[in-house]
From TrEMBL:
DNA-binding region as annotated in the record: 43-62
Stretches for region Disordered: 1-23
Database matches in Gene3D superfamilies: Tetracycline Repressor, domain 2
InterPro entries: Homeodomain-like_sf, HTH_TetR, Tet_transcr_reg_TetR-rel_C_sf
Stretches with biased composition (Low complexity): 1-13
Domain (HTH tetR-type) ranges: 20-80
Name the record gives this protein: TetR/AcrR family transcriptional regulator
Keywords: DNA-binding, Transcription, Transcription regulation
Annotated SUPFAM superfamilies: Homeodomain-like, Tetracyclin repressor-like, C-terminal domain
Amino acid sequence: MSDAHAPDAPSAPRTRRHDPERRDRIIDACLDTIAEHGVAGTSHRRVAAAADVPLGSMTYHFTGMDELLREAFTRFADQAAERVERRTADATTLEEALAGFEANIDEDVFDTDRSLVITLELYTLAARRPEFREITSRWMSRTRACLAPHVDPETASLLDAMNEGLTIHRALHLEEPLPHLAREGVARLSRRR
């Protein structure tokens, strides 16, 4: 019997594709989806498509959309907190700490429209759903901790609130923010003129 007429051999079982970064890719894709469609428009289907993973991967890696949103927003907030921590880590004086804080506002917080939209989506979600305030509260605490060695707790809170307020102001205003607004605000709040 020739090979052309031989019965087909049973095919080998398909091996499961090893994809150790899949969960991380899903989290990143969730943030991209939030930036494009908002939390209200973020679905398992959209995130799976953005991550280029089967829809079933969503329920394999996350118990539901709330867990995915928590993971995604926690990653985003942690990355934002790490940036301000890096900016202020080597500060030994008030001036150095405030300069790092100002740079974080001007260069990191206002980095991209994507970051701005994700930040506002997190604020809105936390305002509507208290269980998400743990993320925003931890983020704000880390920001204030960067200033704590150099200013009193009230000043640290005011500076952090100014940071949050400038973010909202920039997102909602039609005109470009005034140049050096962060520097002026930091100077006034820290009594550094």
